[in-house]
């Protein structure tokens, strides 16, 4: 536990999902200053779905991509600013632009069984001299052995760090242990872990990952992130302090930032409620939460039933539009049943 853990904050990227990508420049500036002053090592700032994410499919962000990155870069004195890139949503041109604006870290994210689509983007990150990370999303949807095979592809493209990403907050502690320990045994890259708190395991799973030897951990102020949020930075730091795990973050500063600044900014409280719990329970992508909630209200159906169907369909990020179709089908079924009852 002696080594210094790198904290990659995602308040300004995963947190974008929780605010429907509507942070203002002023909010981005304030949160960046607080995070930077607290000692986090990396501040990731983009649309929730990464570079190029601002669109009808994922939802438009309030500020432009350039303004989000520029504002974070201007306000971070010590921390590196990072960006997320999903090949196909974002392009190498987006990455070159982000790099020009001062981003130093790129995390190239693919579904856990599709690492091969990351080759060009990882190579581009390396060519630009960026700290280049492979990010294997929805890691619960494949076996630890297969996840390792996908990670090896990212390693062969030049990724310097590779993440186990629990996008649905569906991994249990043993699931995290088995995945991270295989990475540790067989990869020569650094390793990271990204949690979601849907099953209330965000901090616990992060600690298991640290015990298994990860080098980087993601967290966000008050857990600000998709679904029930990520591992809450202030909670994680408190636990790490109790366990003697080395890191650079000041506990009081992140406690104050979470309580005084982050929580009042939340539009919908980031919490474990029946719908976010259902994401972890069924293994659905956390960023589907607000889409399912809206569709449930609009079509008069239980949003939990939408998530059950979406899980059966094995939906992945980018298939947000399926949610509307499922809600319409459920509404029709409900009408038919009512008709029969009448
Ligand atoms: C695009 C996703 O929001 C990336 C992420 O944070 C996850 O899969 O979890
Ligand atoms: Mn996430």
UniProtKB/TrEMBL annotation:
Record-annotated active site: 17
A biological-process GO annotation: L-leucine biosynthetic process
Domain of life according to the entry: Bacteria
Residues holding Mn(2+): 14, 194, 196
Alphabetized InterPro entries for the sequence: 2-IPM_HCS-like (IPR050073), 4OH_2_O-val_aldolase (IPR017629), Aldolase_TIM (IPR013785), DmpG_comm (IPR012425), DRE_TIM_HOA (IPR035685), PYR_CT (IPR000891)
Alphabetized GO MF terms: 2-isopropylmalate synthase activity; 4-hydroxy-2-oxovalerate aldolase activity; manganese ion binding
Name of the protein in question: 4-hydroxy-2-oxovalerate aldolase
Keywords: Aromatic hydrocarbons catabolism, Lyase, Manganese, Metal-binding
NCBIfam families: 4OH_2_O_val_ald, PRK08195.1
Keyword Lyase in annotation: yes
Domain Pyruvate carboxyltransferase span(s) in chain numbering: 5-255
């Amino acid at each position: 536990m002696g080594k210094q853990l790198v904290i990659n904050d995602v308040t300004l990227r995963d947190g974008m999902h929780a605010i429907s990508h509507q942070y203002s420049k002023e909010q981005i500036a304030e949160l960046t200053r607080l995070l930077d002053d607290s000692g986090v090592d990396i501040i990731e700032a983009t649309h929730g779905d990464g570079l190029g994410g601002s669109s009808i499919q994922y939802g438009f962000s309030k500020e432009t991509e350039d303004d989000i990155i520029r504002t974070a870069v201007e306000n971070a004195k010590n921390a590196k600013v990072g960006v997320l890139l999903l090949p196909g949503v974002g392009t190498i041109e987006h990455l070159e632009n982000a790099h020009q604006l001062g981003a130093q870290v790129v995390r190239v994210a693919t579904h856990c069984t599709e690492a091969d689509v990351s080759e060009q983007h990882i190579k581009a990150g390396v060519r630009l001299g960026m700290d280049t990370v492979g990010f294997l999303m929805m890691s619960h949807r494949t076996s630890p052995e297969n996840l390792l095979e996908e990670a090896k592809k990212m390693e062969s493209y030049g990724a310097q760090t590779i993440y186990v990403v629990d996008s649905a907050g569906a991994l249990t502690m043993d699931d995290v242990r088995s995945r991270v320990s295989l990475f540790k045994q067989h990869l020569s890259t650094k390793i990271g872990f990204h949690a979601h708190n849907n099953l209330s395991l965000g901090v616990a799973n992060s600690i298991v990952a640290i015990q298994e030897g990860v080098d980087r951990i993601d967290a966000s102020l008050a857990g600000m992130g998709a679904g029930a949020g990520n591992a809450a930075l202030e909670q994680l730091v408190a636990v790490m302090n109790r366990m003697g795990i080395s890191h650079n973050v000041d506990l009081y500063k992140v406690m104050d930032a979470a309580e005084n600044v982050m929580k009042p900014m939340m539009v919908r409280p980031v919490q474990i409620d029946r719908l976010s719990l259902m994401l972890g329970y069924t293994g659905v992508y956390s960023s589907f939460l607000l889409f399912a909630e809206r569709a449930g209200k609009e079509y008069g159906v239980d949003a939990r039933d939408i998530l059950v169907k979406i899980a059966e369909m094995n939906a992945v990020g980018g298939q947000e539009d399926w949610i509307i179709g499922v809600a319409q089908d459920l509404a029709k079924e409900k009408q038919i049943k009512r008709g029969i009852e009448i």
